[in-house]
Amino acid sequence: MTNNHDNLPVAEPIADPGHPEHHWRPTDVDDKAEKRAERQVSTFFVLSMISAVAFCVAYFTIEPEDTFMGLGAMNVALGLALGFAMLFIGIGVIQWARKLMGDQEISELRHSAASSEEDREATLAALAQGLEESGIARRPMIRNTLLGALALAGVPLIVGLRDLGPLPGKKLEKTIWRAGTRIVNDVTGRWIRPSDLEVGQLVNAEPEGLVENLDPRTNPEDLEARGVEVLHGHELIAEKAKSAVILVRIEPKDLSEATDNWGHEGILCYSKICTHMGCPIALWEQQTHHLLCPCHQSTFDLADKGRVVFGPATRALPQLPIEVDRDGFLAARSGFLEPVGPSYWERNAPSYWKDREPK
Ligand code: FES
C-alpha cells in the first residue's frame, strides 16, 4: 500500500500482540504451597513488630553515651530497629503480591475521562474482586499481622517525641531579674550608671549574676547581701538566653507617661527577645524610637511601652522597671511582670495581667 501524494509506503497498524500465556504459580494450584506462602508473609510482619518493640527497648535501655564500634550505640540500635521494622513490612507486602495475589494480566480500552455509571459499577466490582483475590478477607492471619505491623511501626515515632524533652513548666515564666538586680553591659561586664548613656544610645545588657560577666568590682559579700545568686553552666546558658535586655535613652518628653514611669530620666530597659518567635532584637532607629527585629521585621515603639507598630508580633516588648540603686548603678525595680519571649499555650493566663505595677 502507498501514500497517494508521494508514493511512500503507508505504515500498517501494529497487530495486537495479545497477552503472554499465563502460567499458574505453585501457590495457585497447591494448597500446601499457598499455606506456606501465607505463613512466610505473616512471619515478615511479625518480624516487623519485633523490630518496632526492639526500637522501644533500645530507646529506654541504652545510655546515650554508650558506643558501638566508635559510633553512638543508641543511634545504631534505633536506626537498625526502625530500618528492619520498615524493611520487613516491605518484604512481606512484596511476597504477598508475588505469591498470593491474582497475577493474571488484563487489557482495558481507553475511554473518556468521565466515568459512566456502568464503569463506576465495574470499578467497584473490580475493586471487590481485587480484594477478594488479595485474600485479605479470607486470610485473617495475614490481615491481622499486617495491621499489627503497621500499628506498631508508628510507635517508634511516638516514642521519639520524648526527645523533645520535658515540658518547660514554669521555667519560661520567670527570669533572674528581681528588685535590686544590677544591669550589666554584656560586652564589658560592668555595671552601668545613668551617665554612661547618652540620649539616642542603645546598649545590650544582661542581669548581674552570670559568672562569665561579673563586674570586676564585685564583692562576694555585697553580692550575697543583695541576694544575687551567681549562675554557672546550664543555668547560666538558660538565663543568658531569656534574660537579655536592651537599655535605651530617649528624651523624656518623647515618652508616653506609662513608659516614663518605668524608666529613669529617659533610660528604659526592655527584653531583647522578640515576642514573635524569639529572635534577639537590636536594630535601633534613633529618630523614630523604633526597634526592628531582623527576623521578620516586627517593629516596636520603645517610647510607648514597646508597642508593636509593624510586623507579625502581636505583643508589646516587655519593659523592665528600673531605678538607680544606693551606689548609683542602674538596677531593676522588680522582675519582668510578664513572661518574656514568644507566646506559648499557657502564657496568656489572666494571672499575668494582675499587679502590672512594680512594687
Ligand atoms: S522573630 Fe522577630 S519578627 Fe519574627
From TrEMBL:
**Which residues lie within the region annotated Disordered?**
1-33
Key words, A-Z: 2Fe-2S, Cell membrane, Disulfide bond, Electron transport, Iron, Iron-sulfur, Membrane, Metal-binding, Oxidoreductase, Respiratory chain, Transmembrane, Transmembrane helix, Transport
Q: Which topology term describes how it sits in the membrane? A: Multi-pass membrane protein
Compartments where located: Cell membrane
Q: Which cofactor does it need?
A: [2Fe-2S] cluster
Annotated ranges, domain Rieske: 262-331
Bias-annotated ranges (Basic and acidic residues): 18-33
Top-rank lineage group of the source organism: Bacteria
* TM regions (residue ranges): 41-62, 68-94, 144-161
A Pfam match: QcrA_N
> Does the keyword Transmembrane belong to this entry?
yes
Family that this chain belongs to = Belongs to the Rieske iron-sulfur protein family.
Per its database record, what is this protein's job? Answer: Iron-sulfur subunit of the cytochrome bc1 complex, an essential component of the respiratory electron transport chain required for ATP synthesis. The bc1 complex catalyzes the oxidation of menaquinol and the reduction of cytochrome c in the respiratory chain. The bc1 complex operates through a Q-cycle mechanism that couples electron transfer to generation of the proton gradient that drives ATP synthesis.
Supply the name of the protein.
Answer: Cytochrome bc1 complex Rieske iron-sulfur subunit
